[in-house]
Amino acid sequence: MEIRVLAVGDVVGESGLACLERQLRRLKKEKNIALAVVNGENVAGVGLTCDHAWRIYDAGADAVTLGNHTFGKMEITRLLDDVNWLLRPANYTGHMPGKGSTVFDMGAYSVRVVNLIGRCDLNFHADNPFVTMDRLLEHGKRVTFTLVDFHAEATSEKLAMAYHLDGRVSALWGTHTHVPTADEQIFSGGTGYITDLGMTGPIHSVLGIRPEQSVETFMGGLPGRYQTAPGPCKLQGAIFTLNSNTGLCTAVERIDIR
What is the pTM for the complete model shown? Predict the structure, then answer.
């Protein structure tokens, strides 16, 4: 049996969330998606509120992953321990609220979703994501499929993780940089991969924010509070086709809906 999993890139701002609400359920139906994972850490610019998290879930996400802005809105700590579908990076220390992985029992098969954060130029205080993932695979519950959202700045760190996990996880994708990469592939051991999914947010923007604000920052001006760019939005991500006999990937397709 084969199933299709949809991974959606970082949702940026209220307009990105509205785009997700318009598009996700239709896309799941058209593409016969069994499970959708959405990165939601930028809905409020920096972080997300409890209301935002529920809106992503109600829009059709089965799991919502986060990243370096997990605690940008501290109210989210109230929800992290209460639901099984909202994940913060697994390699945050054990003192942090919430969890970094969850398992969905789908009857004929089971799916583990894992959220990791990179340490290169992003979060040096997090535990080693490579060691964390090894530990989870060794001691975690046996499942049919394992999916990994690796929220990381460095493309080298994401690619190295893919080689490290090849054949041991079904699919690994990168988030955080908001620009989709053209390197979707299946590694020799059967793991599906793409370095970055892109984002769900304003088309005419710099990573989702107003271009003039980004230019001013690079010109040496005061950056100010991030302002989501106006105008039409896009939904970006990737679809991974997985085989239940092997637990591995057979196809990867990039998604860009405008």
Answer: 0.96
